[in-house]
Amino acid sequence: YHYEEFDGWMREWYVYIPQSVRQNPEKKVPLVLAMHGYTCTGEIYAGNSVGTMSQKIRIHCCVPVRTACQG
Questions:
Q1: What is the CA 63 to chain-centroid distance, rounded?
Q2: Helix (H, G, I), strand (E, B), or coil: what is residue 70?
Q3: CA-to-CA distance for 39 and 48, rounded, in angstroms?
Q4: Which pLDDT tens digits describe the chain residue by residue (71 residues)?
Q5: Contact call for residues 14 and 26 (beta carbons, < 8 A)
Q6: Nearest Cα to 3, choosing from 68, 67, 70?
Q7: b/e code 31-60 from CB counts within 10 Å (16+ = b)
């Protein structure tokens, strides 16, 4: 889980890096942005299948978390 402020907005996201990718950091692998639908959350989406999928096909996966409107 990561978070950082950008232009006054707090942004949050989950990143999954499979163990096989961590063991070979010099090898390039794709980064996939996994966007969850309106009725889901980043937490649920990241926890359901992202890790399994990432491990299986050797990719980095990033799941953004929806940020509530400010103001």
A1: 3
A2: coil
A3: 14
A4: 788 898 888 888 888 888 888 898 898 888 887 776 666 666 666 666 666 777 777 777 777 776 655 44
A5: no
A6: 67
A7: ebebebeeeeebeebbeeebeeebbeeebe
E strand spans, the chain: 2-6, 9-16, 31-33, 60-65
Give backbone dihedrals phi and psi of 17, rounded to 5 degrees, phi first: -120, 115
Report the candidate in 61, 56, 57 with the shortest Cα–Cα distance to residue 32: 61
61 close to 53: Cβ distance less than 8 angstroms? yes
- Sign of the four-CA dihedral 36, 37, 41, 47: negative
